[in-house]
Amino acid sequence: MKNKTLIIGASLNPERYSYKAADKLLENGHDIYMIGNKAGTLFHHKIVKEQTPYTDVDTVTMYVAAKNQVSYYEYIISLHPRRVIFNPGTENTAFATQLNSRGIKTEESCTLVLLATNIY
């Protein structure tokens, strides 16, 4: 089993990029966890509202604006992911600096583009 991707800002709305990312990650053989404002089920995976202490998160992909990321800082750091992807509109230099200082790689990129070009 591949390490998992945590989608922060997951949505049941098919128009949202986090929804499209969940679909494409699963289509490309990646397993996912999802945190969103509303709990639900998407593609047979739960969207939870709680900051769950997962132990196997490889990548965190952000779909919440920088101003809404503060409440996730300590949580994301506690997961010890290999990398955090800041999708367009979620760029956060201050948090990226904190992550990098802890050995966590950061990317300002688009998860959908990374998947489409086979460099995820």
Task: Explain what this protein looks like in three dimensions.
By secondary structure, the chain is of the alpha/beta class. The protein is built from four helices and seven strands; from the N terminus they run E-H-E-E-E-E-H-E-H-E-H. The chain has helices at residues 17-27, 73-79, 93-101, 111-116; strands at 4-8, 32-35, 40-42, 45-48, 57-62, 83-86, 105-108. The protein has a seven-stranded mixed β-sheet with strand order 3-4-2-1-5-6-7, sandwiched between helices. Helix 1 links the parallel strand 1 (4-8) and strand 2 (32-35). The radius of gyration is 13 Å and the shape is globular. The two termini are 16 Å apart. The mean pLDDT is 96.
- CA radius of gyration is 13 Å
Content-based structural category: alpha/beta
Oligomer class: single chain
- End-to-end CA span: 16 Å
Counting DSSP E segments of at least 2 residues, the number of strands comes to 7
Topology:
Blueprint: E1 4-8, H1 17-27, E2 32-35, E3 40-42, E4 45-48, E5 57-62, H2 73-79, E6 83-86, H3 93-101, E7 105-108, H4 111-116
What can be said about this structure in brief?
With 120 residues, this protein is α/β, with parallel strands linked by helices.
